[in-house]
Amino acid sequence: MSRETRTAPDVASGCCPLYHEAVELIGRRWTGAIVATLLGVHPHPMRFGEISKGVPELSDRMLSERLRELEERGVVERHVAPGPPVRVTYGLTAMGAGLEPALAALRSWAQHWLDEEAGSAAPRTN
Known about the structure:
- Residues 16-118 form the HTH hxlR-type domain.
- It comes from Paraconexibacter sp. AEG42_29.
- The protein is mostly helical and 126 residues long.
- It has one domain: Orthogonal Bundle (Arc Repressor Mutant, subunit A), CATH 1.10.10.
- Helices cover 49% and strands 11% of the residues.
- It is built from seven helices and three strands; from the N terminus they run αααβααββαα.
- The chain has a three-stranded antiparallel sheet with strand order 1-3-2.
- The radius of gyration is 17 Å and the shape is globular.
- The mean pLDDT is 87.
């Protein structure tokens, strides 16, 4: 889909194509957790193992796949420092860092609405 056809909201569907694309990108399994880990308290380029520790349930294969997807979309940069040993780090681009306010708002929403122990969560039906 070309950039021109994605810029205007699709009135018939009620969903902006760019919004939909953003939700699909960051909403992929583990992607939000990876970006949140890279944002961290003190954002800095991280090695694969550091990211893996930040999202312990994530397999190395899936982490590698998601990092590759994020790199292709311009959210993450992969830096290779010549060795020996070769040192590979991953960091957020300006585009990736721009996700910080959205992820902070989502974290706040989750703490308010999904934290059952806080007592503020409405009963979930599923």
